[in-house]
TrEMBL record, chains A, B:
This is Carboxypeptidase Q. Homodimer. The monomeric form is inactive while the homodimer is active. Residues 17-46 are annotated as: Disordered. It comes from Sphingomonas palmae. It is found in: Endoplasmic reticulum; Golgi apparatus; Lysosome; Secreted. The keyword Transmembrane does not apply. Residues 1-20 form the signal peptide.
Amino acid sequence: MKCILLAASAAAALSAPAAAQTPPSPSPAGQPAVTRPAPTPPAPVDPRVAALRDAALKDEVGYDIVEGLTTEVGQRLAGTEAEARARAWGAAKLKALGFKNVRIETYQMPVWVRGAEEAEIVSPFPQKLKLAALGNSGSTGAQGLTADLAVFPSMTEFVNAPAVAVRGKIVYIGNSMQPTQDGSSYGANGPARFTGPAMAAAKGAAAIVIRSIGTDTHRLPHTGVTNFPAGTAAIPAAALAVPDAEQIERMAKRGKPIRMHLVLTPQQTGSHESGNVIAEVPGSDPGAGIVLIGGHLDSWDLATGAIDDASGVAITTAAAKRILDSGKRPRRTIRVVWFGAEEVGGFGGEDYAKKHGTERHAIAAESDFGADRVWRFETTLPAGAKPISDRLASALAPLGIVRGTGGAGDGSDIEATIKTGVAGVDLNQSGLRYFDVHHTPDDTLDRVDPAQLQQNVAAWATMLAVVADAPEEIGSVTRP
Amino acid sequence: MKCILLAASAAAALSAPAAAQTPPSPSPAGQPAVTRPAPTPPAPVDPRVAALRDAALKDEVGYDIVEGLTTEVGQRLAGTEAEARARAWGAAKLKALGFKNVRIETYQMPVWVRGAEEAEIVSPFPQKLKLAALGNSGSTGAQGLTADLAVFPSMTEFVNAPAVAVRGKIVYIGNSMQPTQDGSSYGANGPARFTGPAMAAAKGAAAIVIRSIGTDTHRLPHTGVTNFPAGTAAIPAAALAVPDAEQIERMAKRGKPIRMHLVLTPQQTGSHESGNVIAEVPGSDPGAGIVLIGGHLDSWDLATGAIDDASGVAITTAAAKRILDSGKRPRRTIRVVWFGAEEVGGFGGEDYAKKHGTERHAIAAESDFGADRVWRFETTLPAGAKPISDRLASALAPLGIVRGTGGAGDGSDIEATIKTGVAGVDLNQSGLRYFDVHHTPDDTLDRVDPAQLQQNVAAWATMLAVVADAPEEIGSVTRP
């Protein structure tokens, strides 16, 4: 999961296509109630869809994929030999599951790798702290650097600080991120990571350490990519574990200058191969457009990426497998993509759109927000396809999934495809636990609740059964 | 906290002095109920004791000590300059709080220090694992060693394994430790760490990695001391984080040999200075014996030791401070000791007993099981002092503390003193969260719940008020 939630909330602010379905309250305060129009009866649920959905609640394929990929491959940083092993593992697994047209499509991408990572308070209270370099961080060199901290409680204070307060120092930026159901606190607090380092470089800082963009209190820092604009030299940039960030804030309250020694030796290693793994459930009507689903295969290097995003590839693949095994060829081809190199810049999604952007896609949908239960769905469908949303609402309701009023098309891997005018369907997962673990060494198999994973598979199987067989045409949409 | 809970459960098994107070059920199934004897009325609570207790629920001194020691000193491994800084910090703090006879008593001890720590599965599923060397671990040398794993699900299977199954291999020992209120699962599962490495060395293993003796699922290994008998060369010995241990167990189920590369470069650095910090609330009756309380000042090197055991020194000190400030000199001198070098072998407790064992002690009591609420008290008092336990029962009941039927005298720092025949009073804390964090990098200030810490201070202040002023003689006890 990258900064897609920023895009999501921006989209939500700009568009509420379903809002018109809910009339404003007819009973202003102090006035007699007006009779509401009779509610539209829910769309009937195709018994075949209901049966597929209910059977998927006992799915075992999804967990098997997460368990296998995380155990037999482990971490799979984009562009490394580990990601190549993951592609081979994925292609073999997809073939063994009976998918058609299984292939790997490769591309080249710049690769950054982690080095040594040490931080130590030199004075006034000598002690070591835990941190992890951010993707694209510069290096301090093996000897490290020593400088005073410029402590900012949040991004706002840092943005407003003059360069003179920062020059030659190590910038510290705090945050007060809390868990949110829709993950929107990531969008609110993430800029300290997304753009803080570039801004610190522009203000002349020697380096930057941020409080992890996370909601846990373990000594496991949250890494993640940052970007420096062309022409700006990357400064050393890292995230402190939350307890270590709190330690700095306690020290700062004591009022004495805080001096830190920092060693970060990551490297840009040049261009290397990455790739997407693609598989299909062939449809009967080539003209009806492809249903594109998937997640990303690469993970950060600190953990086995069980929730980010082995679960996403597992959920979407297990759902497609249920259609494959259902005995009825779907109208539309379902294409499952295990995208490469999402974490470090969305290279897999870009490559897919470059190679397949001219093919007709009916919808694109991604699972990249962990493995906790789906609580809401949202769609961005062209006008004539609205009955599909009504049928989704009826079919998903027994899974505890409500209909949202925002747009859809979340997921950085499908972003480039969505931008070409393809409709989106989002199955939103609960974000309440996600940022406890996101991009930390704790993103391991034990974080996946098998029952919640099954609910996800059931939601996706339901969505596929409804959308892939929908008789309506699903044409291009104009994105808000 | 070391292996004291083994001793505690052994003591509980051997003695139940208060059990006679609870008659066996007079109503066997199917028979008419027999009238129980009228219960003994509870001992009255001295209003002064009640007032001290209730005021202590708003204590701020305890949290201030934990916060200060963990922030301003941080980790304080025994025998290092960090522990020396902690002693200086402690002596200054105790003087500032107004304690009398504040002094540092030093001794020499052997010091082991951590080095590099890396583990990597070479085949069949290459990936890095997280682990931490155990105290007194041998070194692999900088180049490390590579060997096949001999996987044992638990200590029992390992104990029963012939040497030929182990020779030249890296032993893995699992466990299935669960949280327990009284911490007894530490005693049940701890031997894999306490004696597993020595046994592995005796069987000819190249090294040993155990599943952490812990109840969490974070990628933070639990260190802790192990011991090799004289004449046995220390082999490399480490604890894997629980998710990493589970990863090995999943790999093992696939049936292929697992090859590991292990780098551990800790060192024994010879003899260095450690010490105890001692402070007193002087009593009015030197002949009545000292009330010895405290916790240990040293911590493991991976964290700031907030619950192990900054909380113990803070709780006991804050409680003694309440007696100091109460305006009434206690009958007995209360001696607070911040013991050094507990984690690595109880050197501070041994030195204290050597230097002070001939002084008359009324009781000894230690707080070394975190910062969660006290739920039970137990005593080992000589016959004539039994009314003290009755008064404790009445005075502690409003804090939700029940009277236990086992013996007392837990705490490795007071073990040597208790062995001389000194009575013990235990205020048992809940162990349900303790082993999530014990000896891991997560033992930081955020683990301390201020309200539960205050309940501890109130319990200790109550105990001190009752015991230090008790008119009864508290003579020597024969330990079970």
